[in-house]
Amino acid sequence: MLNFVRVVWAALVSVYGYFFFKDYKQVAAAGKLDNVSVAKAGFIGFITNFFDTLGIGSFAPTVALNKFMKMGVKDRELPGLLNVADTLPVMVEAAILTTAIKVEPMTLISMLAAAALGSYLGAGIISKMDEVKVQKAMGVALFITAVLMIFKQLNLIQGGGDAIGLSGIKLVIGVIGNFILGALMSAGIGLYAPCMALVYFLGMNPQVAFPIMMGSCATLMPVGSIKFIKEGAYPRKAALIIGLSGMVGVYIAAKFVSNLPMDILTWLVIAVIFYTSTSMLIAANKASKQRAK
Predict the structure, then answer these.
(1) DSSP at 77
(2) Would you state the pLDDT for residue 100?
(3) Residue 76's CB: how many other CB atoms inside 10 A?
(4) How many other β-carbons are positioned within 10 Å of the β-carbon of residue 1?
(5) Measuring CA to CA, how many Å separate 44 from each of 118, 218, 244?
(6) 265: which residues sit within 8 A by CB, 6+ positions away?
(7) Within the chain, how many helices (H) and strands (E) appear?
(8) Residue 155 contacts by C-beta under 8 Å, 6 or more apart in sequence?
């Protein structure tokens, strides 16, 4: 079953690669490639995807570093850059971590399919929801999760577990949960930290979150990227450099994650959840203040 998933990923990345390199070749032949620093784009791709593999995410850091380092990508091209450039690194993350970290096949496949279906079917529903309210609710929920995980680490309460798969009602909850998280990606709510929290509450090993959350994104991102490529709404040269250097960052970080002692990995997961919770609440607060003006 895992081989089937990898075949699907291979098919998706092949279609993505066909459209990307066809478009890149045409634009390069016309002499219209974007003028970005190879060194800056390479550094940004490596460092953001290194930390993406640790569960922190690459989108926000890429936006921040683009401005801080003056890489040269215009704001209107950032959505396309983030999706197109990070597709290859995410595919590598999923491929490596589904091999390095054991996950029960039915659990993995069910949750990946749910996320993909949620992204496709839930987009229309989520787009009509109040994004600020969603961010606030998710931010508070993640904050509470992180606090509970700290209590568990300090042996103050019971929680978490060592399971590498789900069955029965827990599997149903996991599938529904990942369906919702896939749909929330349409509203710009990242899947990584909420997926970590979901895995924790269902009693699974914290490592299991990595192949599930990255596999979910690997199933979604190639399809979304093709839309940006067809519309030409992205910087080709920056996307290529960030994608290639990002794969190197992923390879190094994946070795780090798969070999990390469980206690340290759990603290890392807690830090990521706290970071995401804070980011969501700050973003929601800023949006609320802007609406009030």
Answers:
(1) G
(2) 84
(3) 9
(4) 9
(5) 30, 20, 11
(6) 206, 207, 257
(7) 12, 0
(8) none
Rounded to whole angstroms, how far apart are CA atoms 287 and 292? 9
- Per-residue pLDDT reduced to its tens digit, 2-42: 788 889 999 999 999 999 999 999 999 999 998 899 999 99
Which is nearest to 217 in space by CA: 239, 250, 241, 171? 250
- C-beta neighbour count of 79 within 10 angstroms: 16
**Distance in angstroms (rounded) separating the CA atoms of residues 95 and 115:** 17
**Closest by alpha carbon to 164, among 195, 193, 207, 197?**
207
Length of the chain: 293
Amino acid at 133: K
Would you state the structure tokens that stand for residue 280, as one six-digit string? 């969501």
- DSSP assigned state of 203: T
Q: Is 123 left (phi over 0), alpha (psi -120 to 50) or beta?
A: alpha
In this structure, are residues 99 and 3 in contact, taking their beta carbons and an 8 Å threshold?
no
- Contacts of residue 1, Cβ cutoff 8 Å, sequence gap at least 6: 105, 106, 109
Whole-angstrom CA distances from 142 to 106, 246, 266, 278 are 26, 27, 15, 9
pTM listed for this prediction: 0.80
List phi, psi (to 5°) of 74. -70, 150
| Distances from the Cα of 65 to the Cα of 27, 59, 70, 162, angstroms | 25, 10, 8, 37
